[in-house]
Amino acid sequence: MPFDVTILAPHVPFLLKGALLTAEACALALVGSLIIGLLVAALRTSSSPLLSRAAFVYVDLFRNIPFIVQLFFFFYGLPEIGIYVDAFTTGVIALSIAGGAFSSDVIRSGILAIDTGIIEAAEVSGLSKPVIFRKIVMPIALRTSIRPLGSVFINLVLTSSILSTITLNELTGSAKIVASDTFRPFEVYAVLLIAYASLTYLVSLAIGVLHRRLNRDRMPEVA
């Protein structure tokens, strides 16, 4: 049977709707994972053994459990104890929590890489620890961590394809439906390959632009 992508023309609006749903879920999850990553990284570098240990347990737990198991727990498990959340919200929350565990490790590495002389100088200037962390430590850590964070975010976009397993008709879920309707899985999944490659390329491009903006004063070092 010859390759004929034109057979998918009637299904383009449906596939685009799935692509927009994927983009929306990923955008929200990227923000959520970054916020969680910042908070957890702050706790892991805290002087409090209790907070640091709690943050470590969270990271260790969610980095070592398959994402699909986490997703099924939130979507199928929580209703058993009376917690009901729709598929889209569940997907965003699950992606944020899983991504936050990986993001926190990257941001923590950025924090630990900061020259202690900078922090000591800020302390001598009379700045409080919360102000130093918020105004000095976090901006520097994010600036140095933006590229590795990009890899985390790209992986998050790819992982979002698993959301189709909880009845969410995002890009992969929509493609599965079209493939079963048209009996042309080769064309459908070829388009899906291109779609995900395009999404990850856009994320990579955005990270590159952001990296250059944040490091424009020291580009010869980081280029």
Automatic annotation (TrEMBL):
PROSITE patterns the record matches: ABC_TM1
Pfam families in alphabetical order: BPD_transp_1
Cited InterPro entries: AA_ABC_transptr_permease_3TM (IPR010065), ArtM/GltK/GlnP/TcyL/YhdX-like (IPR043429), MetI-like (IPR000515), MetI-like_sf (IPR035906)
Keyword flag Nuclease: no
Keyword Cell membrane included in the entry's annotation: yes
Record GO cellular component, one term: ATP-binding cassette (ABC) transporter complex
Transmembrane segments: 20-43, 55-75, 81-102, 148-168, 188-210
Record Gene3D superfamilies: MetI-like
MF term (GO), any: transmembrane transporter activity
ABC transmembrane type-1 domain residues: 19-207
Gene Ontology BP, a term: amino acid transport
Role of this protein: Part of the binding-protein-dependent transport system for glutamine; probably responsible for the translocation of the substrate across the membrane.
Protein name (Swiss-Prot/TrEMBL): Amino acid ABC transporter permease
